[in-house]
Amino acid sequence: MENSPTIFIVPTGIGCEIGGFAGDALPTAKLLASASGCLITHPNVMNGGTLSEKDQNIFYVEGYSLDRLAKGEIALRSVKKQKIGIIFDSGIESEILVRHLQVADACVSTLGINVHSYVVTKEPLNIVIDSDSSRMSGGIIENPNTLIDAGKRLIEKGVTAIAIVARFPDDSDSPETTIYREGKGVDPISGVEAVISHLISKFLKVPCAHAPALDPIELNENLDPRAAAEEIGYTFLPSVLIGLSNAPDIVELPNKDDLITLHPNQIESIVVPNGALGGEAVLAAIESGLNIISVKNKNTLKVTNEFYEYPNLFEVNNYLEAAGLIIAIKKGINLNSIKRPLKKIQKCSYND
Predict the structure, then answer these.
(1) Is 270 left (phi over 0), alpha (psi -120 to 50) or beta?
(2) For the chain, which terminus, N or C, has the lower number of CB atoms within 10 Å?
(3) Structure pTM?
(4) 346, exposed or middle or buried, with CB in 10 Å at 0-12, 13-18, 19+?
(5) How many CA atoms lie within 13 A of 291 on its CB side?
């Protein structure tokens, strides 16, 4: 059966009901990958703290690179394995650093992942969180250049994919964190996490993903199941290393390389939450004439299809319907033939 390459986006830091927590969109990604045969999605969907999963039908692509793929600037090349390097923020305390290094060793010994080496930044990254639980997650990196320099050093050593571990401020008692853990708000650190990984993607053009370094958090008996994956280990690094272990290479276009696995002109559809239709990937998909599948998935954004007059935009109630729509597209089924009432074919007039 032919594949129907599909991009699946759950934007970071907007409190999506599905995908706004600790890898809780991963089952959805597996469903859509099964339906399409080829799904391209980003770490926010796949990373569940200490939990994640590989799927041969899923390409793990950092968000900035995913936007570039949708815009036709890059292609993807499948690899059996990546040589992963880790950047550690020099602001990480010794004990927390050791915990992360032990996680990396465990991923090598137990999962067979190729974690090659690590580097510590020359200066602390100094992460500043600026989030509003009712709107969006955000923040800044005060020392971005030291992050880029560390990444360049790893690439000089032959690393082909980069995991970043930055020290985040301890705000476990903040209202935003409590609300998030109880399933009612926006992940307060996810916005600045995206900034970190976007920097590496933009300047170094290799697969990458980020895991925050935090102090162990106090028990919360009111924990929402969607946030539970972040509570069961010392670090969030395992899911990042699992995702990067065979993430596809980034191929700059134009390129005559016949080893390209997925060219942007092969993509047929993009699946995105209703209300989040203003992102770069969606706008590029509209310009390219792709199918836009808008799924009801409550979030804090309000950019909906009322702003567009676009014939290939389909609204569905949930991701189960989205999967059915993808299968219909893949099989070349006329979507109108499934709807009722069924309209008769129209006669063309010479005077039209």
Answers:
(1) beta
(2) C
(3) 0.91
(4) exposed
(5) 25
- Per-residue pLDDT band for 22 (boundaries 50, 70, 90) equals confident
Strand ranges (DSSP E) for the chain?
Answer: 6-8, 39-41, 58-60, 74-77, 84-88, 115-120, 127-129, 139-141, 161-167, 208-213, 249-252, 269-273, 291-295, 313-316
Number of Cβ within 10 Å of residue 3's Cβ equals 14
Place of tokens 């969606």: 282
Task: Say if residues 223 and 170 touch (Cβ distance below 8 Å).
Answer: no
Q: Is residue 292 part of a domain?
A: no
Nearest to 295, CA basis, from 16, 86, 99, 12: 16
Q: Could you give the C-alpha distances from 78 to 58, 59, 82, 240, in angstroms and in order? A: 11, 8, 10, 18
pLDDT, tens only, 152-190: 999 999 999 999 999 988 765 566 666 666 567 676 677
Q: Which two tokens stand for residue 31?
A: 């469903």
The whole domain housing 181 covers: 6-252
Calpha distance 333→171 (Å, rounded): 51
**58: in domain:** yes
Residues in the chain: 352
Nearest to 49 by CA among 221, 248, 213: 213
Q: What is the pLDDT of residue 231?
A: 77
Helix (H), strand (E) at residue 331: helix 319-331
Residue 261 forms part of a structural domain: no
Q: Residue 15 pLDDT > 80, yes or no?
A: yes
